[in-house]
Amino acid sequence: MAILKAGTRMRSAVCKAEVMVIAAPAAEVELCCGGAPMIGSAQTPPEGGAPAAGADGGTLLGKRYVNAAGDLELLCVKPGDGSLSANGETLVLKEAKPLPSSD
């Protein structure tokens, strides 16, 4: 568990996914990808890792992922096979805001 701050880059230990923290809560967060804790972007992931069953939904390049409370937001900067989660809760794609209609 770590206290995250905006601009922090993290990478998956089990796939090629990398994310950047856009917004984070003040509390400690256990950020996981593919069922394994994420590591710092400068660290080298161990060889032979693979996402766990049920945590292999993948991450999409350029998409933002948020938790249900909306206080954690991650931007995927490199896609991978693992799904993102925080404190055991699977993160979901952030929906685009609808544009106002023009008459």
Question: How would you explain this protein's 3D organization?
Answer:
The protein has 103 residues and is an all-beta fold. It has a domain at 9-40 and 54-93. The chain is 0% helix and 31% strand. The chain contains no helices and ten strands. It has strands at residues 9-11, 18-23, 31-33, 36-37, 39-40, 64-66, 73-78, 84-86, 89-90, 92-93. The strands form two sheets. It has a six-stranded antiparallel beta sheet, with no helix packed on it. A hairpin with a 6-residue loop joins strand 6 and strand 7. The model has no long low-confidence stretch (mean pLDDT 92).
* Distance between the ends: 50 Å
Which percent range fits the helix content? under 10%
> Mean pLDDT, rounded to whole units?
92
Number of helices: 0
**General shape:** globular
The major beta sheet can be summarized as:
6 strands, antiparallel
